[in-house]
Automatic annotation (TrEMBL):
In the N-terminal section; belongs to the leguminous lectin family. In the C-terminal section; belongs to the protein kinase superfamily. Ser/Thr protein kinase family. The lineage of its organism: Eukaryota, Viridiplantae, Streptophyta, Embryophyta, Tracheophyta. This is non-specific serine/threonine protein kinase. Its EC number is 2.7.11.1. Residues 340-611 form the Protein kinase domain. Its main location: membrane. It is found in: Cell membrane; Membrane. It catalyses: L-seryl-[protein] + ATP = O-phospho-L-seryl-[protein] + ADP + H(+); L-threonyl-[protein] + ATP = O-phospho-L-threonyl-[protein] + ADP + H(+). GO terms for biological process: negative regulation of response to salt stress. The keyword Glycoprotein applies. GO terms for cellular component: plasma membrane. InterPro entries: ConA-like_dom_sf, Kinase-like_dom_sf, L-type_Lectin-RKs, Legume_lectin_dom, Prot_kinase_dom, Protein_kinase_ATP_BS, Ser/Thr_kinase_AS. Residues 1-21 form the signal peptide. It is a single-pass type I membrane protein.
């Protein structure tokens, strides 16, 4: 009898324990002594701050709640809130961002830093097999993932492209007006993420810390999370830095499954990292004028907006009169593309979306690229350059016909290339046929000829700044034509380019660019080297490796050369050809072009001589090409590399430049 009662009581207790463990609930008012699982550069500081990244570029860090949470097959409601602060390296500048995530695994070791936010990599980005839900706080604008600006909050499902996103800010309860928040302002903020399983709705609310939760959420998105989430999932934070470092901190966190997250006791939270005072005075110096400028910048567009708020509104200013012939009306472009229908979308990525269209009167088939162009600053010069580029004529360049300008947006009108872009032929997963070596070699030579024209043969020097397979288009005869001049800069022969923002694509950026900010024909040559490798090997210049590191194609080719196995790195589709000597020559030339020292790279004139006239390459000593591009890209030990190798390099550079 007694035994029975005991057994019953025991079972009851067990049941209570089990049932309770289903409804996970926790609060961290600071993280001292917490058992979070950390990886990457994440750490818990002595005062209890969870620091996900530590003011170092190209790093990632994760913090997981240690045990998985049972959301159930019909995802239960949940709610979470956390207090966080981002500290930029220098006032205002820093990236990449942070995310709250729900993931099926607590091993995100293959995820990459920078734009991948420590959540995805090139391989799995966008795939439904990820089963990842995230709320991102992103401070770098990545147009490839359709980021709104460099200060936004987004709901992301399996992808870096947000399903819904908004500028960071909140709706004021009293006035209902939207208040901006700057994520990179070193201000502490609080977030609420809630999911309601009955309405199938995700809500994200942001506010300055200390303010009560605003009634109207920043984001609300109807979505059935059970489509994405598995029964049992891990929850946590991920953060990454790109080229500009920052530190991302979480100060407090609470969570509840099937209920409202307990409130965080702000008085118990550790002090946020202190702002150094020297910076503060600098901040004032910068902030005050920019507040005024911001006022002007906000009011002027609003004024203009109100005056021109109709469908085909465009921006047209007095200085544009001289460019008249190169200007298209928005109405025409709208008609040409059937109102920018999804059906006419040729591609999205890099710096915008590209649509196919047929111009109403001329019936000319065109490709129209829509680029967001936030600031008015430099617009006049930019348009002048667009118009100059419109005067370029070469059979290996895609003709730029003209432009149109709207609020915050620029449309560039190019000749339409029926065969699409080269990358579609190089990478599997596309329906395009593979190209044989003769076709590929012709494309390489064509692009080289186009570049030579840009660098040396036209009235000004044109530096393209974004050479890569996806910007090479194929005409009806499969000639390679360099397109997309959206980033090109022009300057007079005999002078140098101004220092500009470093733009381009990872893997094609010459190392000196990130140091000096100066684009030159030789930085294009570097990218051209990466491009040739891409065409010969059928691989991207930077690919994610098994451990989340980056595999750099240049390093791989160099390694194969040292081992005498260059043929093994060639695209398997090409290995049957008899032109292996020609292929090896192109590989070696690529390495010379992608040399970390600009002085060691050939000019396009020399490249043409090697490619076209069969001029032998300078005698390259593989041992003196002993560099690791990965190390250089990561900016590790680059200066010492220059010092220790420059003496050996000069022999190569004089050889190749002098011949
Ligand atoms: C950041 O963390 C990594 C790994 O913990 C460490 O090697 C590095 O020195 C840290 N950097 C700074 C600036 O604290
Ligand atoms: C980040 O590191 C850089 C370089 O070490 C330093 O100049 C800067 O002050 C650091 N920023 C912060 C906020 O600690
Ligand atoms: C995480 O995954 C990687 C690659 O899948 C694997 O090599 C590594 O051992 C895993 N780490 C742990 C701690 O399980
Ligand atoms: C949004 O979510 C769904 C998941 O059902 C995904 O397939 C879709 O591509 C997402 N992205 C966008 C930008 O809508
Ligand atoms: C999932 O749960 C919600 C809320 O509890 C309920 O309204 C809905 O009917 C459930 N759906 C299924 C398929 O069980
Ligand atoms: C969630 O909570 C409600 C009410 O508190 C309860 O009826 C329901 O069974 C709970 N659901 C789960 C999955 O625990």
């Amino acid at each position: 009898m007694f035994m029975k009662t005991y057994a019953f009581a025991f079972l009851l207790l067990l049941c209570i324990a089990l049932c309770a463990s289903q409804d996970v609930e926790f609060t961290f008012n600071g993280f001292t002594g917490s058992n979070l699982m950390l990886d990457g550069v994440a750490s818990i500081e002595s005062n209890g701050l969870l620091r996900l990244t530590n003011n170092t570029s190209q790093k990632k860090g994760h913090a997981f709640y240690p045990s998985p949470v049972r959301f159930g097959s019909n995802t239960s409601s949940f709610s979470t809130t956390f207090v966080f602060v981002f500290v930029p390296e220098k006032s205002g500048i820093g990236g990449q961002g942070m995310a709250f995530f729900i993931s099926p695994t607590n091993n995100l070791s293959t995820a990459m830093a920078a734009e991948y936010l420590g959540l995805f990599n090139e391989e799995n980005e966008g795939k439904s097999t990820n089963h990842i839900f995230a709320v991102e706080f992103d401070t770098i604008q990545n147009e490839e993932y359709e980021d709104k600006n460099n200060n936004h909050v987004g709901i992301n499902i399996n992808s870096l492209t947000s399903n819904q996103s908004e500028f960071a800010g909140y709706y004021d309860d009293d006035s209902g007006s939207f208040q901006n928040l700057n994520l990179m302002s070193h201000k502490t903020m609080q977030v609420w993420v809630e999911y309601e399983s009955e309405d199938k709705e995700i809500k994200v609310t942001l506010s300055p810390v200390g303010k009560s939760k605003p009634n109207k959420p920043l984001l609300s998105y109807k979505f059935d999370l059970s489509v994405v989430l598995k029964d049992t999932m891990y929850i946590g934070f991920s953060s990454s830095t790109g080229s500009f470092p920052a530190s991302h901190y979480v100060i407090g966190w609470s969570f509840k499954l099937n209920g409202t997250a307990p409130s965080i006791d702000l008085s118990k939270l550790p002090d946020p990292p202190r702002r150094n005072t020297k910076e503060l005075s600098k901040v004032l110096k910068i902030v005050l004028p920019s507040v005024f400028a911001g006022f002007v910048l906000i009011c002027v567009p609003i004024f203009i907006y109100m005056r021109r708020q109709f469908k085909y509104a465009e921006l047209l200013e007095d200085w544009e009169v001289e460019f008249g012939p190169h200007r298209f009306s928005y109405k025409d472009l709208h008609q040409a593309t059937n109102g920018f229908k999804e059906k006419e979308l040729l591609g999205a990525g890099g710096f915008g979306r590209v649509y196919r269209g047929v111009l109403p009167v001329s019936k000319l088939e065109v490709a129209i690229k829509r680029v967001s162009h936030g600031s008015k600053q430099g617009m006049k010069q930019f348009i002048a350059e667009v118009v100059s580029i419109g005067r370029l004529r070469h059979r290996n360049l895609v003709q730029l016909f003209g432009y149109c300008r709207r609020r915050g947006e620029l449309l560039l009108v190019y000749d339409y290339m029926p065969n699409g872009s080269l990358d579609q032929y190089l990478y599997s997963g596309h329906e395009k046929p593979t190209l044989n070596w003769i076709q590929r070699f012709k494309i390489i030579k064509g692009v080289a000829a186009g570049l030579l024209y840009l660098h040396e043969e036209w009235e000004q020097v044109v530096v393209h700044r974004d050479i890569k397979a996806s910007n090479v288009l194929l005409d009806s005869e499969l000639n390679g034509r360099l397109g997309d001049f959206g980033l090109a800069i022009l300057y007079d022969h005999g002078t140098e380019a101004d220092i500009t923002n470093v733009v381009g694509t990872m893997g094609y950026l010459a190392p000196e660019l990130t140091r000096t900010g100066k684009a030159s024909p030789l930085t294009d040559v570097f990218a051209f080297g990466a491009f040739m490798l891409e065409v010969v090997c059928g691989r991207r210049p930077v690919e994610p490796g098994a451990q989340g590191e980056r595999i750099v194609l240049v390093d791989l080719v160099l390694e194969h050369w040292k081992q005498g196995s260059l043929a093994d790195i060639v695209d398997p589709q090409l290995r049957e050809t008899f032109a292996i000597e020609e292929i090896e020559m192109v590989l070696k030339l690529s390495l010379l072009c992608s040399h970390p020292l600009p002085g060691a790279r050939p000019t396009m004139q020399q490249v043409m001589q090697y490619l076209d006239c069969g001029k032998p390459l300078p005698d390259l000593m593989v041992s003196s090409m002993n560099y690791s591009m990965l190390a250089i890209l990561q900016n590790e030990g680059f200066d010492s590399f220059v010092m220790s190798y420059s003496s050996q390099m000069t022999s190569i550079s004089t050889q190749s430049v002098g011949t």
